[in-house]
Amino acid sequence: MAFSDLREYLNYMRKNGKLIEVDSEVSTDLEIAEISRKATYSHLYPLIFSRVKEFPKWKVVSNVFYSLEGVYDVLQTRDLESISKSFLEGFSDMPVTLLDKVKSLRDVLKLGKFTPRAKKPSFAKSDLKLTSVPAIKTWPKDAGRFFTFSLTITKDPDTGVHNVSVYRIQIIDDERAIIHWQAFKRGSMTAMRYKEKGITKVPVAIVNGVDPAVAFTAASPVPAGLDKYLFAGIMRGEGVGVTELDNGIMVPSSAETVFEGYVNTDELMDEGPFGDHLGYYTPKDLFPVFHLTKSYSREDPYFHVTSVGKPPLEDAWIGKGVERIFLPFAKMVIPELVDMNLPEYGVFTGVGIFSVKKYYPGQAKRAMMAIWGLGQLSLLKFVIVVDSDVDVHDLNEVLFALSTRVDPQRDVMIVNNVLTDSLDFSTPSPPLGSKIGIDATRKFKEETGREWPEEVTSDPDVQKKAEEIISKLKSRYLPS
């Protein structure tokens, strides 16, 4: 089942007793953010704030991705891998990349039910200003109020492919805001392509309040070159309804609010500081300015926000959802890959643990290089590769593999002066830094110069008898 809009999702959650109405009057200045963070840490259900100081006509929604259960609610399945598996199984052969796969006419037809479709908008033209919405200040030293879960939508000037992403946006005044798209992000890359054509005014739409599956997709690392609306259709099981604005940008037709305008690539302003998902303030830096030209709104609109900080908050659970959904795509490119874990406290781009079926010497390091070539995984600072019998989600098993299968001089690879997360303040010259890969697999003779030792295993008959005796002892001496 796909939700038609944010309101249908909220009604579904309310009907199932999984929506929390906050009756207290709250402020957009720190209070909504603090309550939302504490709710996420406690795995409370999504929140609706209906009494927001200075914004009486608005309802603020937060904590949609309150845990991995929240991702299941939004995508209406607990088997997240099945979303991408069922999609990929529809193709007759295995592509080199998904982009290669969708080039044939047959495959374009296969994608038909997932592609966006024109639909009459639920919103209407309004006199809404950027300052009119209940955007929030999340930390005391933030530069001001920010859009934290609004979608920034751009369109490639050559291919017409739409990018739908979540970037933080700092409000400057009624008609100006600063969009924090980092140099390697798709919005920034699209702007550069406009600039190469001599176009400095890049058409942009800032959208808030959509079906959370679309918001989830916007926050996901969809492979470059593929339309995020298409991926949102895959997540939903059906295409997204869209409406074309006067500036040529397609926006979700059921959005609560839409700001139409442009980004001037020649106009930069200091953005920040902002307390981000690493748990530290990002210092001021120059980013492009968005100029509002038209606005649209639904009646009695909802405004969707999130509050970031030290994990695990909503971005961590989105990351865990992405991990499961994108695993089949990763396996398509790296066939020996068995499983992966992007731990919540590894802040998604910090630490990645991957298990592989190892068939030949040097394979683990080859897998590391392939992992660093996969979209958002390219930002991983620590990549740990283990054998297929290691449960990547059991950190004790991973630690055992690190302790018994790694010689630091032989099995640790450091790569210098490569692209990292621009928000990572620990790097000497962001966005350039270093990465480390650790081969924690068993080694072939070619890798060590000698045979790998045999691991201890129990005699099957003795093991069976011991288990029977231990089971009786447990039932007798341990509390039930």
UniProtKB/TrEMBL annotation:
Domain 3-octaprenyl-4-hydroxybenzoate carboxy-lyase-like C-terminal, chain residue ranges per copy: 317-440
Domain 3-octaprenyl-4-hydroxybenzoate carboxy-lyase-like N-terminal per the UniProt entry, residue ranges: 10-83
Gene Ontology MF term list: carboxy-lyase activity
One Pfam family of this chain: UbiD_N
Gene3D superfamilies with a match to the protein in the record: UbiD C-terminal domain-like
Matches recorded under InterPro entries: UbiD (IPR002830), UbiD-like_C (IPR049381), UbiD-like_N (IPR049383), UbiD_Rift_dom (IPR048304)
Any one of the GO CC terms: cytoplasm
3-octaprenyl-4-hydroxybenzoate carboxy-lyase-like Rift-related domain ranges (all copies): 124-311
NCBIfam families (UniProt xref): UbiD family decarboxylase (TIGR00148)
Family the entry assigns: Belongs to the UbiD family.
Protein name, as recorded: 3-octaprenyl-4-hydroxybenzoate carboxy-lyase
Origin species: Sulfuracidifex tepidarius
